[in-house]
Amino acid sequence: MGKGEISIMLGIIGAGNMAEAMIAGILKSKTLDNKGIIVSNYDKSKAEKLSSKYGVSAAENIEVIKNSSIILLAVKPYALINTLELYQNELADKVIVSVAAGISISDMENINTRLKIIRTMPNTPVQICEGVLAYVYGSNIAENDKTLFKSIFYKLGMFIEIDESKIDAVSSLTGCSPAYIYQIIEAMSDAGVKMGLPRELAISLSAMAVQGSGGMVYNTGTHPAVLKDKVTSPAGSTIEGLAELESKGVRGAVISALYKAYEKTLIFSKK
To answer: Could you report how far apart the first and last alpha carbons of the chain are, in Å?
Structure first.
């Protein structure tokens, strides 16, 4: 669906980091143009900032709901529940896309059994259409609702339907991991600076090394251990560095960090 073909309006309630990432990704993917997006936020200045930056429309919540056929609720979990309770009648015939962690489909449908819910778990790299967007359909979602949802969001990266029982694990693995990867890139660039490289170049080289390595795993389907062995020569520099990583417990630290994030997510889900 390109410019001039828009027959739908995406409404976004919330104007934080995830809302902006989704707007940027959708505009980059060209599934909608800026005339097809309307945004609101309790702090109106944030919605107006997005309007100024991306050319989308800014309005009040009720206007967003009335003028949109699909609503992205990009708000914190407590605000999500409040919004659904406050506008449940107005939202009853809309497709509602939630990005809130810890709020299940049943939690949302229990507010009003007519609500058409799609629970999603995107990560911030959707901003450049290289993210992950996992999704689960609620019980009231019809085939035409699925088509509408997919037509807007499918180009944001890895677009995958999952069982809701797995969404907390996906949230931890893909939602939290960008922060860990950024820290790894920062550490790699520190090493580059220590070796005499300018900071800007060290960051660029480190980021591209991570991007390319991830692409090799994702695009070839080859197990990372096999790819690792292909760049590891006997008694070479790479194996020396790998041995140091093992001695410092990096592998275990990564596993532990992700599992700690998962445990925290489970706590949120039980609240």
So the answer is: 40
